[in-house]
Amino acid sequence: MAALPTVRWGIVATGMISSWFVEDIVLERQDAKVEHVIQAIGSSKLEKGQDFKNTFCPKQNPRIYSSYEEVYGDADVDIVYIGTPHGYHYRDCMQAIAAGKNVLCEKSLTINAKQAKEIFEAARAKNVYVAEAMWLRHRPLFRDLGRLLHQEKAIGDVTRIFSDFASGVDIDSLPPTSRYRDLTLGAGSLLDIGVYALTYTILALEGDAPGRSEFPHILATQTHEAGIEITTSAILHYPSTGRQGITTCTTKTFGPPGEVFAVVHGTDGFIEIEGTAPSIPLAFTVYSKQTGIPERAYFPKESFQGKRYEFPNVGRGFVWEAENTALDVLNGRKESEIVPWAGSIRIMEIMDEIRRQGNTVYPGERRRD
Ligand SMILES: NC(=O)C1=CN([C@@H]2O[C@H](COP(=O)(O)OP(=O)(O)OC[C@H]3O[C@@H](n4cnc5c(N)ncnc54)[C@H](OP(=O)(O)O)[C@@H]3O)[C@@H](O)[C@H]2O)C=CC1
Ligand SMILES: O=C1OC[C@@H](O)[C@H](O)[C@H]1O
Q: Which class is 140-310 in CATH?
């Protein structure tokens, strides 16, 4: 069998998400298209980096550094994966780009749209690849959902969507330095989990070209506890199509596990999406409109069999993102088709407007009325 092309990752930060990502990409898979090498690990402490390697990629032989800058300076690193809290994404992306590195950076890409635009401008100037690690967009479920909605028009023309991400975090019990509490790290439910609920909304309402349609009218409200935004509700309305979405998120409670977290309605039916969490969707069901009885165009759900599509997870679900990103870099692309720059800017702009209305301001930002 021909050897697989190799991509050499530099991992920046050794927190939870970096461990999930690295464990997944070193999984041995029959259908792998790329061999992922963990070339370097950068951490605030050398011992943390060493422990990380021993625990999450024991068969790899990375260089372990006690700074992120050394990862950026390592000539054998093809792409840097940034797993720091969102408050540091701008700094870390800019430093990696300045060193000429390709970058895959965790969601939310930045704190605001201005920072995201500056990152993309810097990447363009340096001719390097940058993408936001919105792993949801790389999942086969998400791709098939988009195709059914917009190419096959399985529910006719999309008219609206409800989408939610509820995740119970006992913020009070966490130390003030936790990324769920520290505003300099980007604490708040919208940037942490609302970004997923919005990703479904944008897929449904903006179609396959996120960020290229008109900007929606937005009506939003946010609740804060001890200065941290813990609950957001937003209505998005696209005037030219009349499409509407209600997008909500909260860190105050868990949604029912495995239950529906988003529903998309169209002129000919609706689709329910479910899974472990909105970031880990596992199935959706398409319900079609009944014809011939105009006043009862839909059966009550209990007596109606929808068509269910299931999508098993592989590992934790990061392999698709890692593989698509590696192939982009190996093929010399500078931008992901799946998570394009315009899409990341659009979602940051929408979150900026929601935060403006909700009065959520991060350090270094000016309050806008
Ligand atoms: N795609 C997904 O499903 C998920 C994505 N995420 C995203 O990943 C990012 C990180 O989240 P998560 O891994 O949960 O966070 P953690 O707190 O677990 O880890 C963050 C790591 O960043 C480094 N770091 C640098 N400066 C700081 C600082 N001042 N305070 C704390 N940590 C710092 C540390 O690594 P070191 O000491 O090694 O330098 C730390 O371990 C966030 O942007 C989040 O939105 C999070 C969870 C799931
Ligand atoms: O990306 C994420 O997905 C799962 C959540 O629990 C986590 O807080 C968030 O960062």
A: alpha beta
Give dist(CA 14, CA 71) in Å, integer: 13
State if residue 84 touches ligand 1 by the CB under 6 angstroms criterion. Answer: yes
Residue 142: φ, ψ to 5°:
-65, -40
Q: Which residue has the tokens 């969102």?
A: 86
Question: Could you tell me if the CB of 13 is within 6 A of ligand 1?
Answer: yes
- DSSP one-letter code for 148: I
Write the pLDDT tens digit of every residue in 78-123: 999 999 999 999 999 999 999 999 999 999 999 999 999 999 999 9
For residue 306 the two structure tokens come to 């929808």
Indicate whether residue 19 lines ligand 1 (CB < 6 A): no
Kindly list the domain boundaries of the chain, sorted by start residue: 6-136+318-338, 140-310
Determine whether the shortest distance from the Cβ of 88 to ligand 1 is under 6 A. yes
- Above 0.90 for ipTM, yes or no? yes
Evaluate the CA torsion angle 142, 344, 151, 157 in order and state its sign: positive
**CATH: 3.40.50.2300, 3.40.50.720, 3.30.1330.50, 3.50.50.60. Which one for 6-136+318-338?**
3.40.50.720
Closest CA to 204 of 249, 265, 258: 265
Which amino acid, one-letter code, is at 35? E
Which SS3 state, helix, strand or coil, does residue 347 take?
Answer: helix
User: Tell me, what DSSP letter sits at residue 190?
Assistant: I
Cα of 63 vs centre of ligand 1, distance in Å, is 20
For the four alpha carbons of 65, 320, 186 and 214, in that order, the dihedral sign comes to positive
Predicted local distance difference test score (pLDDT) of residue 1: 62
Check pocket membership of 14 for ligand 1, CB cut-off 6 A.
Answer: yes
Query: Apex CA 177: angle with CA 164 and CA 174, to 5°?
Result: 60
pLDDT band for position 51 (cuts 50, 70, 90): very high
- pTM exceeds cut of 0.95: yes
Q: Tokens 């540091």 belong to which residue? A: 88
Task: Find the range with the poorest average confidence among 219-228, 267-276, 277-286, 290-299.
Answer: 290-299
Pocket mutation for ligand 2, best pick of 18, 84, 167 (most atoms within 8 Å of C-beta): 167
pLDDT tens profile 237-247: 999 999 999 99
